[in-house]
């Protein structure tokens, strides 16, 4: 077909379009899956133009290739060719960056071929022979010896891979992969504490039996023994034993949305999305988004009460998505997402901390400075330091992490520059780190690291709260 591989708003859902290099790609008259479905199309192919698309990070190229390999194998069931890929090089510039882009594309191809996957070929862009000009910027000339070393090396490796297919084969060690992609090695492990992937529902009990339904907000008790969960689509609050994964429902009626205070087992929530607890773990404050309210669950008494109602002196709450507090929960901050503002709701009394006092939906923006002048665009979540001096905001549409100094009222940007992207701070272009819909944030116990759930990059990032440096 000869297309780039974009996903369109006409044929693909929102999650697919988030893979595109930008919103401009949503309506280019092409859709990778729809355009390759025809019975007369023998194979699928994509292009990758990192400079033209303003995605000059190797990680984007890697994600772009893997997404299309997945679609070729699972949706199209056709062979797949990485048809046009490369990297521009200015006259006099080192070959290192271009060679790295080519090498990582070849790496992805080889890994898939070894596993007997859909990849059937690669075709770098583009061969120019001899010449003094730079062609279209992507040109590879016969005198570019180091680039040809990469091409020859992987041509040989790909030939060998065709004859050595093994579904368990690994083309590269973890160390080699991380070194090439600039990723950090990690001793950490990811384990499932509670719930079953792909099986939404409600079930209490041991870790292997527990089911949840769109769990959103998390809050850890001071002793680290209890993890409280806003189980959104079940309309309940859960407690998970961090040692065993044993899960119980502490408040709400499963599957029954509503707004009723009283005994915890009879109280009703409506799509709770965020929770916060004091170090003592005596109670839980809940951002009850569907009710546009904040609720308090008293664990000792087993009761639920409305902490902040939807009607405030500054208008109605608008789909509050985040809540956080200091060590004692004497200082409490609510992210009033629909109004693009941050509220101080300490002791149940509402004051505007940062952002507009009214009609916030009309006053979205990305402005730092004094809290009264600062603007946000659909902020989603927050994390407060234990001493209550600073709160960090995942400002979703700003694709940035914002910082509010609670002692001075100053709003600054800790990380992100307002543009979607995947890169960490350490990148070969020495350009700012970027996010793609940062959704959740949590602080390390010492407050030095802020962990970010980077939704549409499908990864967890760590931000140094002193320097703003971002690492995946």
Automatic annotation (TrEMBL):
Gene3D superfamilies: Glycosidases, TolB, C-terminal domain
Keyword terms, alphabetized: Glycosidase, Hydrolase
Matches recorded under Pfam families: GH5_mannosidase
Glycoside hydrolase family domain location: 25-131
Region called Disordered, residue ranges: 193-216
Composition-biased stretches (Basic and acidic residues): 199-214
PANTHER family in the cross-refs: NHL REPEAT-CONTAINING PROTEIN 2
Family membership: Belongs to the glycosyl hydrolase 5 (cellulase A) family.
Protein name, entry field: Glycoside hydrolase family 5 domain-containing protein
Species: Chloropicon laureae
Lineage of the species this protein comes from: Eukaryota, Viridiplantae, Chlorophyta, Chloropicophyceae, Chloropicales
